[in-house]
Fold this sequence. Notes:
The protein is mainly alpha-helical. The protein has helices at 4-23, 28-55, 60-67, 71-78.
Amino acid sequence: MAPTSTMVDRMDSSTLRTLAGDAGSDDPIVALRAISRMHRELDQIEAVAVRRARNANATWQLIALALGVSKQAVHKKYGRM
């Protein structure tokens, strides 16, 4: 059986592909709903990746660099993990 994170990654990839297609809809309301949902999905994926990085002993500085934000911003958002 695959590790949980791998199964979650596959599910999120499939969901994101579907939502990306919907984001290109000719109907602006359908597109906006898809974009909103994509934001939520990506936030969850990011949180899992940050947790995995911290569990692998990555520093807040390294995580911040990977995300393109300041060390303070990433620590404020995820520091309670």
